[in-house]
Amino acid sequence: MISAARYILFLALLWLIMVLFSYDFTASNLNQYNQEKQRSLASGVHHFGISVINKQHIVSSFQHHWIETDEGLLAAHADPEISIGLGGFKLLPLVHRTLKLSLLGSTGQSGQFSIELSNQATQTFYDSELLEVNQLSEAIELEKIKWRINQPNLQQSSDDKSENVVSWEDVGVIDALVIRFYGIQAELLKIADIEIKQSHVGKLQFVDSQCSQQIGMSCVITNAMNYDVHHAQQSTVFTVQSYPMVTGFHPLIWLLAAWLTAMFVMKLIGAQKVSVYALVCAVFVIILLTHQSWMHSFGSHLRWAFVAGFIGLLWQQREALRLPRKQALPVWLLTLLVALLLFVFEPEFEFIYSLPGYLLWALMQQMLIGSVFSQSLHQHTHGTRWQIACFIGVLFSVIHAPNHMLMLVTLVGGVLWSYAWLKYQNIYANAFSHALLALLLYQIMPEMWLGTARIGVFF
What we know:
The protein is of the alpha+beta class and 459 residues long. It folds into 2 domains: 4-29 and 248-458, no CATH class; 48-196, Jelly Rolls (Sandwich). Helix content is 45%, strand content 15%. The protein has helices at 4-43, 217-220, 222-231, 252-268, 274-290, 299-316, 329-345, 351-380, 385-398, 404-424, 427-444; strands at residues 48-50, 66-68, 73-75, 81-84, 98-104, 112-119, 124-128, 131-132, 140-141, 147-150, 165-166, 176-182, 190-196, 206-210, 238-242. The strands form 3 sheets. Strands 4, 6, 7, 8, 10, 11 and 12 form a 7-stranded antiparallel beta sheet that branches. Strand 2 and strand 3 form a beta hairpin.
């Protein structure tokens, strides 16, 4: 007979070890990012540039405006628009004051364009006045442009639009760029490259805000740490946050300790089959792989691996897709409640467009949680339903490292979904509740608390 207190103690230890792993991994990456940023700013080389623009550099919803060529991008139709992905680069008005966009081909003297800069985290947009296309023959001096601020999430207190005009020095940190062309004919405009150079160094002041001297959410929760570094408003000084490591060891030491703890938990519940141990070990192999820096190079190919894996999972677990014998009424009632809350928080029902994609993603995860992991551990160990569900919940949580908030949410969800599967074996109830809960989470969670649902090096 397994001691319940001992079992929960080791599960809690496993989860806390992965929380510490997530903190040390994020702290190490952010410290390195801040140091590199400080060096480049101090040296005057904190630039952004693309030598030959292609469609991979454009936000997907704008790609249909352009035709890819060897020299750059050719306008596919009249009055094209382009949103260039900055790849995490932050445009800082204090030091970035010029924008260079190289054009090829004839544009005509009447052609005009406008620039939209934005901070996606705060949903703050800065729109330029209309500018002549022939000005692009030289670098655009951003500080000489009148910028109109637009914050859709805030109610405007006045109809006087002049109150919304700000100078370049008052523009916040920018992480998105859109350029719209007017009076331009199709296939007569070609964009070759773009360059945003650090054009001002001056006497930069770097203030090291030591988290070791204070205790706060932005010093311990990885989501808040990420938000604080990447969305901090920089005015006259640059705050360089420094995060102390829990230990002086490499973060992967924590991962090794977590794996050993998981193996001990498997012993506690009497697991003997090699295949069951292999399933749990696979979780930690995936965590190890997703935290390798070289994974960035394979990011664009991972979606195809997921598609292939999903198809294989559907075939291998096709029995789970049969019409369930049990209705899982409590799960459906919870799903209905979540749907009602979504209608309250999103009265325009925009979440409906995202539901099909989330439903497929939720179905894949629920098949892994239920018919693969929960069913295997239930059949080949001595654990009770709740003991298996708690272990599966912890495994489902830690695979979302280093995203602390997502780890917390998936810990609770993983336990409940695993138990619901073991009791009802209704994959559809679990998948619908999963998809709707995910959409609700994105609606109600503040940006600083969640920020992103990404994991591993993509966090």
